[in-house]
Design goal:
Number of helices: 10
Strand content: 15-25%
Distance between the termini: 47 Å
Shape: globular
Number of strands: 14
Amino acid sequence: MVELSVEERQRLVTLLAAVPLLASPDGRAEMLALAGLGDLVPHIDLGGPTLVAVSRIVTHLAAYGRFSHDHEALGLFLNLVATLTGKEQQDFLAALLLRHRMMLPVAPGPAVVAWKGATGPGRVEEKIITSNTLRPVHFLELALAAARPVCHIVVEDGAGRWTGTGFLIADDLLLTNEHVLPRADLLDGARFLFNYEDDATGRPRPVSTARATGRLYLADARRDFALVELAGSPGTEWGHLDLAAAPPRPGDRVNIVQHPAGRPKQIALQSNFVEYVDADVVQYVTATLPGSSGAPVLTDDWRVCAVHHAGGTLQEPATGSYYFRNEGFLLSGILRELPPDVRSRLG
């Protein structure tokens, strides 16, 4: 159970009431579902004025307590809300999460534009119904192997802590988003947790923590990537991901190994179609959550083709239309930004 002070509760309810997606019952239900709290929706009255409804949500989630071993129900919800707010609101929510030990805040993603209406969702649903989802059993073995080089990133500085996802592309080189590791001086306070996942019985596996050497940090805000050298070459134990020879095409499937909402490692395998590709970005309907920033976007042969960086109402560059999708920057464009001596170190 989370026990908020009167002042904290008042400020939190006022903040939530200003979030556009919480202005309707459907939006409230969708937000709870995106936070992984869909099972609680039937138990909360989501109708009525926005201020009243969000107050009910806060009351229910705070009283519910732990939704998983590491996360309060209210923490999961606020971590998602933080990605839809401004810097001042994000700072307040991050402080609230830490003060009440709800969970670590995830790295805030890049801003997306306001909702202007989706078109063509039936096309995606039809693919989900009619697409052949049969795969050989060894497909799962390859998935497990591709999951090993993916790690949970925890970053700390004087302003607080946040989390993201990253992955090895060489034994000692890790790729993530620039908005997860935006500055070189953050490397001293960053931890890279491999094997942060649960076993078949639901018990946590032993975690292996790596640190940055501080010798190599390359970042590009435009393509939202950061490349970091890790000490001890953790890839000798966990392996590294192979690079895709070509970008995916619309209609292809892409799979994402990630740490959604800062949780133990998960994988998105279903309803995972590519909707748009150009020379720089790929947009897809594969499931992610805040905290998945920096995760590898993998082709069906388990080679990395892009780095996931954002989700929500995104503009399709070629048409200018807006869709509710996820997006990653193609690895081919990122590799072109790397110096030759760094590219030569890739597997």
